[in-house]
Write a structure and sequence with these properties.
The complex is a heterodimer of chains A (about 650) and B (about 325). Helices cover about 35% and strands about 25% of the residues of chain A. By secondary structure, chain A is an alpha/beta fold. Chain A has a domain at about 345-425 and about 505-640: 3-Layer(aba) Sandwich (Rossmann fold), CATH 3.40.50. In chain A, a hairpin with a 2-residue loop joins strand 1 and strand 2 (about 15-30). The two termini of chain A are about 40 Å apart. Chain B has a domain at about 1-90 and about 290-325. In chain B, helix 5 (about 95-130) packs parallel to helix 13 and helix 6 packs across helix 8 (about 180-220). The chains are: A alpha/beta (about 650), B mainly alpha (about 325). The interface of A and B includes residues 102, 112, 148 and 162 of A.
Chain lengths: ~650, ~325
């Protein structure tokens, strides 16, 4: 190993309060490998880089060890540090041009370390610097320019050339690509690949997730100075385990994700440490840490538990209090009480039969916290049946249901109310799902009255106004007094949504919630659902026949056909490269490419073979004989004998 | 590239033309302004004397002394070093001027060099120790010094070192009528120079110090200083080549501004210490309404200031290459 960081904690003292920049960060860097540090601004990424260079300001208190090839480098004096700086560890700082002295020509600045260390004469050093610049793609005529005469991309190359002039073992790149165009980015990543092949270790500080995926071997996710997750880079976008990693991925625009960017609710805050002074592990560990938002004095209660808890979609009460450590889960190291992203709902082999009609073949479905799952499929494919089973409104013939870690059937039998409170349902036909004799106020307040009996009228009124405002409805007294027949369809739909959300459920089952809306209202409602997902951490089971809609809103998509889930996978994958021919057909039909000779599908008991066989463009014998089993291809689960891939 | 360089040189040409026009305006002012002074040589000369002039004589004298040469012939004479005769000293003005100039140059030059370099170095070092007790003490002390006018420092120094302790001579630039070897003469000049020089240095130093420190404090926060540290460069190189180099500009500007007060600045100090420089010459000339001397001193010193400012303007571009890009 080349660079080893062990239990590194850094506190910045600032007058009477101190800010915790890093807490017990341990990382190991192997020669020829790239480690990416990812996190929002203020998460301590740059502090970590500066600590490795011995460049922390004088108000920083440091604890822990940093060693380079087994030798400690965190406690060296200035002259010993100068031996290491640039020679062994070099850094490309962020903000480009500001890192170059405006008064000197770039070649002089690149050559400077060589000359000042007495390694080469001025002339040889300049020649070597020119060569280094040339290698980085800075051409002859620019070598004698001043920094202000170069563009941002060229500056980045100059900085890289400067960092590599002494051929260090470790190179720290702080946001090397953040201000670059895609083509310059490719150049920089080529350079990093070259560095790696030269057995240099690279620490890549970035918020560009795709760069991290393509260049790094492993990724450390930092949040407020704590490592939240260490994961193999290839899993960063496709298989994150920590909710924060997931949320970062959701906020990052890629060419593959079609849904709107989510963002993360709330803001990162400073971590204040009260009672500055010694870095006494026992003393400052959690008990004196104060988390503050904008004002220093009115900090929130000290979170003994998870730092991300306030912004997390799946936080439970215990997250606030129980201390956490990094745990090994599935090859990732995750700091999460709930062992990573939790499943909210799990259906195992649930099925439903109405007399002779099989509405649902045994089906597995799982829904994670804060996830939007879209069920698409044509009429009669069993979407609503599956949704009602998921909502606990319909009892499945067979199979097992788990909600938030508890057996749903048992829960429903014992105390149905507490289960029902967790699940909000929007029914398919909004106008019919509200009693015509209830005013808006009564309709929306009804769940509140059932579940919280001791609310005063005023509290109920306030809560109803609040939730109506959230779904962008009027909170006028006159509006609250109206009856369903006085409202238009869009308003009724949103009243239904308000009713479903008034108890702050964790799961929203929405059966075609926008099918009767005009496009502008539909867009608003969808935006609302996305906002609520971010704000409340809501999980949504969204049923629609509109695959374009699913594309805009879903994290994952499940395609249903004749009571079977034939394809399940991340929305982007299912839609861009469908594996099941039926999915292909659905997509084609939306884009107007499908033929018109479609036969109906039979759901009758005893039907053998693949339900899609009759319509499949290329059925084989086996398709008529045998029902296909579930196959796992490329993050997707698919039920087809001859998948398209 | 070629395009750029012609662009620069044309800009430089514009600069020179601007300065030339300014110089011309100054020439005209120097020609016309002294004539607007109230009173004249004749009044100043004979007002206090026992001689009583008849009205006729007075008119004749006045006509002689207020002769109008015309601007063109004034210019012509200026360039041939024919600056007229001093009314009061009865010597050519150029002689008087050239006698006084070296003393002022010596005093002013030494004062500026010492106060600039001392102020710069102390400023850089203080800012490097930003927040320490030493720095705070220095800032306090310098601010205090800045508040004392040079007339007070001059008199205090004179009282203390010339009158009480008698370490230094109180008047003149050298001991008169002493036939001595060069070395002794130099030592003598140095001895005479010490007090006025110290007064001027004490007057200029605090400003230079405070300015350097303030601009350094801004510069040492710049990322490129951190980069220099990261590169493992020697401490002095970081401090001076990287940080201080970029903090130099305000100091140079201040130097240029200070020059504008060149003559008036030394006037007070030269008067206190009776130093035979341009300031003293100007003071005496004004008292005597000695028009040719006033004209020459004011004009030549202002032209010198203008030239130095022009040089500084060119120097800026070397100190900070970005200036060429500012439009």
């Amino acid at each position: 190993m080349s660079l080893n960081i062990k239990q590194l904690s850094i506190i910045y003292r600032d007058g009477s309060h101190s800010i915790q920049a890093l807490e017990e960060v341990s990382l190991t860097l192997v020669p020829g490998e790239c480690l990416a540090l990812v996190g929002e601004s203020g998460s301590g990424k740059t502090t970590l880089g500066n600590a490795c260079m011995g460049l922390l300001p004088s108000n920083a208190l440091m604890e822990g060890k940093i060693s380079l090839n087994g030798r400690r480098i965190d406690n060296l004096d200035e002259s010993a540090l100068n031996e290491i700086r640039w020679n062994r560890i070099a850094m490309v700082f962020q903000n480009g041009a500001a890192n170059l002295n405006p008064a000197y020509r770039i070649v002089d600045q690149v050559a400077e370390p060589l000359i000042q260390r007495g390694l080469l004469s001025r002339r040889d050093a300049n020649a070597k610097a020119c060569e280094a610049l040339e290698q980085m793609g800075v051409f002859d005529e620019h070598h004698y320019f001043y920094p202000h005469q170069l563009s941002g991309g060229q500056i980045q190359r100059v900085l890289l050339a400067m960092a590599m002039i002494l051929e260090p073992e470790v190179i720290i790149l702080d946001e090397p690509t953040s201000s670059l165009d895609p083509l310059s980015k490719i150049f920089i990543s080529d350079v990093i690949i070259r560095l790696k092949s030269n057995k240099m270790s690279v620490i890549l500080i970035t918020h560009d997730l795709e760069i991290a995926v393509s260049l790094a071997e492993s990724v450390s996710i930092l949040y407020l100075g704590q490592i939240m997750e260490i994961l193999p880079a290839k899993d960063l976008l496709s298989k994150p385990l920590h909710p924060y990693t997931l949320a970062l991925g959701r906020s990052y625009p890629t060419m593959t994700t079609a849904r709107d960017l989510g963002g993360i609710k709330g803001d990162a805050f400073y971590r204040l440490v009260h009672q500055h002074g010694r870095l006494d592990q026992e003393k400052y560990k959690h008990t004196h840490i104060q988390v503050a938002g904008s004002s220093h004095k009115n900090g929130h209660a000290p979170p003994a538990g998870c730092l991300f808890q306030k912004r997390c979609a799946q936080a439970i009460d215990r997250c606030l209090t129980e201390p956490l450590t990094l745990e090994n889960i599935d090859g990732h190291q995750v700091r999460c009480l709930r062992q990573g992203i939790a499943s909210l709902l799990k259906l195992n082999g649930v099925s439903k039969k109405y007399n002779e009609l099989i509405a649902l073949h045994p089906t597995d479905l799982s829904l994670k916290c804060g996830e939007i799952f879209c069920l698409v499929g044509e009429t009669g494919s069993g979407k609503t049946t599956l949704a009602m089973i998921a909502a606990g409104m319909l009892k499945p013939e067979s199979g097992k249901r788990t909600f938030d870690g508890r057996d749903m059937d048992k829960w429903a039998r014992q105390e149905y109310q507490s289960l029902a409170r967790r699940i909000g349902v929007i029914y398919q036909n909004p106008a019919e799902s509200i009693s015509p004799r209830f005013s808006v106020l009564e309709a929306v307040a009804e769940p509140l009255k059932i579940h919280n009996k001791d609310n005063t009228t005023k509290e109920v009124y306030e809560r109803v106004s609040e939730i109506l405002a959230k779904v962008r409805l009027s909170t006028d007294h006159s509006f609250l007094e109206r009856y369903p027949h006085e409202l238009n369809m869009g308003a009724i739909q949103r009243v239904c949504m308000a009713r479903a959300l008034i108890l702050n459920p964790s799961l929203l089952v929405a059966d075609e919630p926008t099918s009767s809306l005009d496009p502008s209202v539909q867009a608003k409602v969808l935006k609302l659902i996305l906002d609520l997902q971010i704000e409340l951490g809501l999980s949504v089971l969204f049923i629609t026949h509109n695959i374009g809609l699913a594309r805009k809103i879903g994290d994952r998509i499940g395609v249903m056909l004749a009571g079977c889930l034939v394809e399940v996978g991340p929305a982007s994958m299912v839609l861009s490269s469908p594996i099941h021919p039926y999915t292909r057909l659905l997509i084609d039909s939306v884009s107007g490419k499908a033929g018109s000779s479609l036969k109906p599908i039979s759901n009758v008991v005893g039907g053998k073979g693949c339900p899609f066989a009759s319509r499949c463009p290329r059925p084989k014998d086996i398709c008529l004989e045998k029902k296909p089993e579930i196959m796992e291809i490329n993050h997707c689960r698919v039920r087809c004998h001859f998948p398209l891939y | 590239m070629t395009n750029n360089s012609t662009h620069f040189s044309s800009r430089r040409l514009g600069l020179v033309i601007t300065f030339g026009l300014t110089a011309l305006a100054m020439l005209y002012l120097s020609y016309s302004l002294p004539r607007l002074l109230p009173g004249d040589f004749v009044t100043a000369m004979y007002a206090s004397s026992q001689v009583t002039l008849t009205a006729e004589q007075e008119a004749e004298l006045r006509a002689y002394y207020t002769e109008e040469p015309g601007f063109c012939s004034y210019l012509l004479r200026l360039f041939t070093l024919d600056w007229g005769y001093s009314y009061a000293f009865l010597t050519p003005v150029s002689v008087l001027f050239l006698e006084a100039l070296p003393w002022t140059m010596l005093l002013l030059g030494a004062a500026h060099i010492i106060s600039m370099s001392l102020g710069f170095i102390t400023g850089v070092e203080a800012s490097w120790r930003h927040g320490s007790r030493i720095e705070k003490g220095m800032v306090g002390g310098m601010t205090f010094l800045e508040g004392i006018p040079e007339i007070s420092t001059g008199i205090i120094l004179l009282l203390l070192f010339a009158l009480n302790l008698q370490w230094f001579p109180a008047v003149g630039a050298e001991t008169a009528y002493a036939e001595v070897s060069l070395l002794t003469r130099l030592a003598d000049i140095g001895l005479h120079l010490t007090l006025p020089l110290a007064t001027l240095v004490l007057a200029y130093l605090p400003g230079n110090f405070l300015l350097t420190r303030n601009s350094m404090i801004m510069v040492i926060r710049e990322p490129f200083v951190t980069t220099a540290r990261a590169k493992g460069l020697p401490a002095l190189r970081i401090r001076y080549s990287h940080a201080a180099r970029n903090a130099l500009l305000p100091l140079v500007t201040r130097f240029g501004l200070r020059l504008a007060f060149m003559i008036t600045g030394v006037l007070v100090v030269e008067r206190i210490h009776s130093y035979p420089g341009l300031g003293t010459l100007l003071f005496n000339a004004i008292q005597a309404r000695d028009l040719p001397v006033i004209q020459a001193v004011v004009l030549i010193s202002s032209l010198m200031v203008l030239t130095i400012i022009l040089i500084l303007e060119m120097l800026y571009r070397i100190i900070d290459p970005r200036i060429d890009y500012v439009r």
